[in-house]
Amino acid sequence: MRPEDLPRLVDEAAHSLGASGCRIYLIARDQRALVPLTDELLDADCHGLDGTLAGRSYRNTEVIASADGGRLWVPLLDGTERLGVLEVLTNGGDAGLLREPFLPLAALIAELVVSKGQYTDTFERVRRALPMGVAAEMLWRQLPPLTFAADRFVVTAQLEPWNAVGGDAFDYSIDGDILRLAVFDGMGHGLAATLLASVALAAYRNARRAGMDLVLTAKAVDAVLSAQFGPESFVTAVLAELDLTSGTLRTLCAAHPAPLLVREGRSLGELNVEPGVPLGFGDREDTIVTASLQPGDRILLFSDGVIEARSEAGEFFGTDRLIDLLVREESHQQPPPETLRRLIVAVLDHQQGALQDDATLLMLEWAGDSHAVLLH
Fold it and tell me: Which residues 6+ apart lie within 8 Å of 176 measured at CB?
């Protein structure tokens, strides 16, 4: 199957399932619109995420039928990562009756978009409203999916500016009962910062896969950066690992903003981590800080580009504003991916849509032993 044939084949499948038509919408890279996967002009039939049924289906990952029964919106999920929505046109009957046959089709479409996307630019072109810089092109190819969830946790991330990001990076890995997380911020901007962050990311994965603990991992990353770039270049970072059985969170901070903790809709402020020194300085003596999480706790890791975003009047976004918004979204009971999308939109709006530094958010929600489905 050629990737460009997917819309036609899906439409044909829709007719065989009793619908009069079907269209695929993919989420734009800026996370603000759903764009059609067709040969038509991209802005001819886009749907915003707010105030539309398509957007609501995407935001809440739920199947929604229009009031007149003429349309059904089905979220496209690759496991738990939101890719877009499927618009199903009915034959004038009850759209709800098409829910069951189109859920498997939507799952198949999502799998095809991800698998075929490894060797085609068709899907990626649709998602880009603006050209992507070389540094961003390089970095995005190294990052894991924005969202992953299992029965005991959800981990999700956002990174802006999506088309010009440079020095920020994130990573996560689940191995048995241990979930490992990291956020990196390479000094500088553009391609030079991307090279720093990329090497840090690769060194981190190499050490982690060799079975090193957090302290040895930090030393290994530090040694690689120091040998490759010298003492004039460095990377700040937070490395963490969560025992999914006990809720024990172990955190190492390398001159990076401290993670935030939200519990039962209230902020417990920053984790009491030791600030440490950046990776790449050499001669490390890192401290591991341990915290005990409770079921439902949310941990937010972020880069300084989030809190240092400035308004037109020169006002910083700040940690207090970030905490207030985090608690507010918690009260709305939004799933973690939608919470982060709203947070990053708020950061962009604060700086008139043009960030002067990369802004990265990485959220972890732990369910404990409840085996709750955390992603709605």
Answer: none
